[in-house]
Amino acid sequence: MILKLNHLQGKTAASTAQEVVGTLYTLLDEGHLSQDQFASLQIQLDWLQYKQNFREVAMAVCEECLNPSAQRPPIMDVHIDTRQVAPNCLRVDLLRALARTRPENPDPHQDRVLLEEFKPLRTSIVWDFNRLYWTRLNDWEAATGKGYETSLPGGQSDGHQEQAIGDSVGDAWTLLKDMESKNQLPTEIFLLEIGVGTGTRMGLWLKKFKDLDAQRGSNFYPKLRILLGDYSLQTLDMSKPAVAEHADLCSFLVLDAMNPLKSLSFLRHKVLHVHLTNVYDNLPDEEILRRDGRLYSVQVRAFVRMEDAHKIAQEYGFPVEKFGATVHRLLEGGFDHLGDHSRGVALWQEIWKAVRLDERVVALEDLRDFVYPAGLDLAKLEDMMQNAPSDLRFHLSSGALESFHNTLPLLHPRGYLQVQDIFVTDLAQYRLGYWGPGKLDGSLLSWVNGALLKEVGERNGYDVHFAPFHYRKASKTSILYTTRRE
């Protein structure tokens, strides 16, 4: 048996590891584990920093072997969230998790309402919840009585830090001045903000740029063409008051953050600055497991524990047998079918709180229909992983990679992409903590695999750098800065 401490919470690790080892030996003695299972078992102790998440206390992750001729024992890992472990309760949680792996178990899911079959995380129903949150944000905020930013660390977005915005303005002005001195400045200066939120950042940016432009007499401000993009009309409408003073320079666009080129192909090689804040971490994602040099897709299946389903169904007055149908109806925006809109929103919030994810792994070489992000395939991924640890679980950051790949062609030869987000910048970091997915109000987020983004960018002729976000103490944000290699 291999026991891995995948976090740096020392006090929690010591007590939980001791209980895990003792409990597993007891289960072995009682025949709940065979000697072969015990010998090949890998136990991973995680500490989930997200108070709201998709994990049970203990989860057994097994390999689904699609290739019956494979001459190797299937993987079985057990993940334990040390933050949720209650003293003297781990035995029950482990027995429940291990029971689901036994083929002789006639109904391993009798205590769950399954919302889907196993699939890559990027196509899971949880992203339908995420989409609903951003398209019906006003409903969620009205029900909670607070804006979504209050749930962020520090109670506000790092994108609104005035000093950071001032430095961004200074960088942009310096670039424009240099281009002007070399007769490279275009007559129209296109800037793109993807994921506008409340519009606060762009409103502050434009005010500071206008003031700096007037102070230095450069007359760049009237040439600005500001593009504010988001896939939610509601969000775009919400952002307009923040940039009202600069409305004649602004255009509001419905676009897909994963493929801005589709809506903006007419601006290929023309945009001088693209900016995103906390967008990549909220795009569809999935995880990959590397074990003994072989790569596996981590597939998920959303469910609600039966005890939670009964409680919710009873409270909101519908049969538990219709729980799945009710979930899908809600995801279509049907908040009013209970006869009261606010009650429908409350039901949506309760269901989201109760959603959990089960997992299994499938060898990538056996998944002929696996969809890789643009610019990536199995051979390239294996090549990029040559120097990575042999035993590693990491995010593929599919949505972020798609967005990155489909944004770079918009950049002017002198243009740059700037992304403020939470990045894992070294693959080895994945062995030191849990990086999502976690829940944040009605949405979900994962840390972004910056190491993979950097590798993809550099292989496509772009320099990619990361800098710490030093504008807020203890901030986990980093700034990705991308320019075309000369």
Structural summary, described in words:
With 486 residues, this protein is an alpha/beta fold. The protein contains 15 helices and 21 strands. Strands 1, 2, 3, 4, 5, 6, 11, 12, 13 and 14 form a 10-stranded mixed beta sheet that branches. It has a 7-stranded mixed beta sheet with strand order 9-8-7-10-15-21-20, with helices on both faces. Strand 11 and strand 12 form a beta hairpin. The N and C termini lie far apart (51 Å).
SSE layout and pairing:
Blueprint: E1 2-5, H1 10-29, H2 35-40, E2 42-46, E3 58-63, E4 76-81, H3 90-99, E5 112-114, E6 119-120, H4 126-135, H5 137-144, H6 162-181, E7 189-194, H7 200-216, E8 224-230, H8 233-239, E9 250-254, H9 260-264, E10 271-277, E11 287-291, E12 294-305, H10 306-316, H11 323-331, H12 341-354, E13 355-363, H13 378-384, E14 392-395, H14 398-407, E15 411-421, E16 423-424, E17 438-440, E18 443-445, E19 448-449, H15 450-459, E20 462-468, E21 478-484
Parallel strand pairs: 1-2, 2-4, 3-13, 7-8, 7-10, 8-9, 10-15, 16-19
Antiparallel strand pairs: 3-4, 5-12, 6-12, 11-12, 11-14, 12-13, 15-21, 17-18, 20-21
Helix pairs in contact: 1-3, 6-7, 10-12, 14-15
